[in-house]
Amino acid sequence: QQLWRHSCLSTPWAPLSFARRNSSDRGDRGEPPAPSLKGNYRQLCERAEREPGPFWGALARETLQWDTPHHTDCDWDFAQGRIRWFLGGRLNVAVNCLDRHVQHTPDKVALIWEKDEPSTEEKITYRELLDMTCRLANTLKRNGIKKGDRVAIYMSVSPMAVAAMLACARIGAVHTVVFAGFSAESLAGRINDAKCKAVITCNQGIRGGRILELKNTVDEAVKNCPSVKCVFVAQRTDNKIHARSHDILLEEEMAKEALICPSEIMESEDMLFMLYTSGSTGKPKGIVHTQAGYLLYAAVTHKHVFDLKQDDIFGCVADIGWITGHSYVVYGPLCNGSTTVLFESTPVYPDPGPVWSSG
């Protein structure tokens, strides 16, 4: 809240635009240097309030890996509802979350998957997660998914679900993750509103000791979703599915694909994902989050709010179907090169103990 008080503006609704280019360009025009990003959290807040545009522009250059640096930090006019960040900048979110860490720490653990079955876990390194993401991204591309297409993800918390999100980001597709406990009707409503071309799901899910028939729910939902052309099905359990004409067995197809998938270079303001509100106050509304602004927010808040240290293992029990899971299970930790814990179960199954023993 401190970062966005109206006192930082000359007038509450004045349109503002801040331009700051690469530091190498500043000296020729006598521009002031970027604000220092060192200091404690309160000091950072004060600097952000004094000069929000230059502050966040410098932070974006320091935190993210860019293919093309941005030329304008921000451009907003609250009266018109126009808010844009890091104009001219181009990057790829998956590269920021995976590739740049693989260059230096490929064997560092990216994910610790605490499965629903008590005392079972899997560890996935950054290299392994990149390989999984690239294979999945190539599978999507081979089946007609391209930049700008919308993809629904209806899966329990798992490495495959994280790879699905990052695979979409890698090729420029827009993901919309739906909590894997919603009904077929709720799922269909979100698929239709987003006009999703594909759905990624599992044969079944497991949560709190219960089997969730995810594929059956998807089958029921897509009967009323004319935009869906294919359903990618991963195997979470040994249960065999009855494959329909539009079904694609995900692991089988991924095994045929290359480990390298070129990343789609995206504009800062291109859409990264849509996430729907709960619907408690009316029809669920799809909230759009864009590439650079969202990723910077997730990385910076994850680092400073939780006082992240280099070798910390970070655990957040939120489901990836919610914004907290997006930000503090997936994008924030991975952008920061951290180890993040995936909790497939509930915090109290079979008792509260597993949460405290994880990692």
Task: Write the SSE topology.
Blueprint: E1 16-18, H1 23-29, H2 41-50, H3 52-63, E2 72-77, E3 82-87, E4 90-91, H4 93-102, E5 109-114, E6 121-125, H5 126-142, E7 150-154, H6 159-171, E8 174-177, H7 184-194, E9 198-202, E10 205-207, E11 210-212, H8 214-222, E12 230-234, E13 247-249, H9 250-254, E14 266-267, E15 271-276, E16 286-290, H10 291-305, E17 313-315, H11 323-335, E18 339-343, H12 353-357
Parallel strand pairs: 5-18, 7-8, 7-9, 9-12, 12-13, 17-18
Antiparallel strand pairs: 1-2, 2-3, 4-14, 5-6, 10-11, 15-16
Helix pairs in contact: 2-3, 4-5, 4-6, 4-11, 5-6, 7-8, 10-11
Enzyme class: ligase
Protein name: acetate--CoA ligase
GO molecular function, one term: acetate-CoA ligase activity
Highlighted features:
AMP-binding_CS, 35% helix, four-stranded mixed β-sheet, transmembrane helix, 359 residues, 12 helices, five-stranded parallel β-sheet, Rossmann fold, transmembrane, membrane, ACAS_N
Question: Explain this structure to me?
Answer:
By secondary structure, the protein is α/β, with parallel strands linked by helices. The chain has a domain at 90-97 and 126-291 and 317-326: Rossmann fold. It is built from 12 helices and 18 strands. β5 and β6 (121-125) form a beta hairpin. The protein is globular.
Q: SS-based structural class?
A: alpha/beta
Main sheet: strands, sense, barrel: 5 strands, parallel
CATH H-level homologous superfamily name of the domain at 90-97 and 126-291 and 317-326: ANL, N-terminal domain
H/E series, N to C?
EHHHEEEHEEHEHEHEEEHEEHEEEHEHEH
CATH topology of the domain at 90-97 and 126-291 and 317-326: Rossmann fold
CATH C-level name of the domain at 90-97 and 126-291 and 317-326: Alpha Beta
Instruction: Tell me how many strands there are.
Output: 18
Rg computed from alpha carbons, rounded to a whole number of angstroms: 21 Å
Which sequence of strands runs across the widest sheet? 8-7-9-12-13
**End-to-end distance:** 32 Å
Number of helical elements: 12
